[in-house]
Amino acid sequence: MANHPVLNSRNHQVSVISQQLASKVLKFAPKVSQKSLALVPDKLKLDLLGKMLNLLLKEQIEDAELDFLQGKWVEIQVADIGLTFQLSFDNQLILSCQQQADVTFTANVPELLLVAAAKEDPDTLFFQRKLLIEGDTELGLEVKNLLLSIELDSLPKAAKLAIEKLAITLQTLQQYA
Question: Which family does it belong to (predicted)?
Answer without folding.
Answer: Belongs to the UbiT family.
